[in-house]
Amino acid sequence: MPDQAEVSAGAFAGAAVEAARAEPGPMLPAPFVVTGKRQDTSDTWTLELRQRAGSPLELAPGQFTMLSAFGTGEVPISISGGGEGEEGTLVHTVRAVGLATQAICDAAVGEVLGVRGPFGRPWPVDQIEGADVLVVAGGIGLAPLRLAILALLARRERYGRLLLLYGGRSPEQLLYTSELEQWAARGLEVGVTVDSAGPEWLGHVGVVPQLVGRASFDPDGAVALLCGPEVMMRFTFSALAQAGVSSDRVYASMERNMQCGIGHCGHCQLGPTLVCRDGPVYSWSELEPWLAIREL
Ligand SMILES: Cc1cc2nc3c(=O)[nH]c(=O)nc-3n(C[C@H](O)[C@H](O)[C@H](O)COP(=O)(O)OP(=O)(O)OC[C@H]3O[C@@H](n4cnc5c(N)ncnc54)[C@H](O)[C@@H]3O)c2cc1C
Ligand code: FES
Questions:
Q1: Residues near ligand 2 with C-beta < 6 Å?
Q2: CA dist., res. 131 & res. 160, Å (int)
Q3: Which residues contact 151 (CB under 8 A, 6 or more apart)?
Q4: For the chain, which residues score pLDDT lower than 70?
Q5: 116: which of 23, 40, 83, 193 lies 20 to 30 Å off by Cα?
Q6: Cβ neighbours around 81 below 10 Å, total
Q7: By the 8 A CB rule, do 204 and 180 touch?
Q8: Which pLDDT tens digit goes with each residue over 248-283?
């Protein structure tokens, strides 16, 4: 027979389990099932995930989740689809560069992955109505911008010109190639460039910032959303500044090493901020002083 103390301890544990189930907290991964999978490039896959239980996550373009495959660790991955109109679905495009990302890319349909989040400050798509918007992406940087593009196109009439300037290392490394045409048909002016290509490539060869000089838009009030390697974003910002776009109207998504994703561990510090909590999207005027400091 359990004594009174054992009964109360059991009741307390039961209540704690119920409370954790009702309110799981930001450190507890939720199970998501892989419901679809597509290979985009030699090392990049897009996974469609479906939430197993609970109310659908509220996602905003530019946010990220902490995504995990059992036994390999957790990594920050931007949300590239899901949310509005596709409640309960989460889309991630992942480049296999190491243990965790390789395991995520290897996950088969039906497998369960862990998801925490969504976390982070989104792209300001609701605050830039009326503006010409330049979406500038390099490589896998198009993934964190995909949901922003879909949000802009869903309310196309609220914006001025919408331009996508996108660059990859080679034609084979470009993401979402079939969608680029669909987006163009819906009113996105798409400019694509590659660093190098064979004779079959009839498009532009060169780096992304060069596309800024060729684009036509009204610099007064234009807004730019940048995501890609930091060096690409720096040169793109210079080209935008030269064209007359002010630094408080340029936004960039930043990457730093992350562990907790919720502002507790300090791993993702950038200047006086934490990228997981205060970013990943910053205005360039916020970033400028910190980017001037060389990292050791
Ligand atoms: C906010 C945010 C959003 C991101 N969104 C995406 C996304 O949508 N798709 C995607 O494929 N990746 C994204 N990343 C990068 C992704 O988190 C890293 O590639 C991943 O953490 C690598 O983990 P790993 O265990 O597979 O590799 P590791 O074994 O940890 O590292 C393998 C290699 O990748 C490098 N690396 C590790 N972490 C990073 C990082 N954060 N940035 C750059 N290089 C890194 C290492 O130096 C090493 O060379 C994002 C990162 C952040 C911070
Ligand atoms: S990842 Fe821990 S504080 Fe940002």
A1: 258-261, 263-268, 274, 276
A2: 5
A3: 61, 84, 123, 125
A4: 1-13, 16-17, 19-23, 294-296
A5: 40
A6: 19
A7: no
A8: 999 999 999 999 999 999 999 999 999 999 999 999
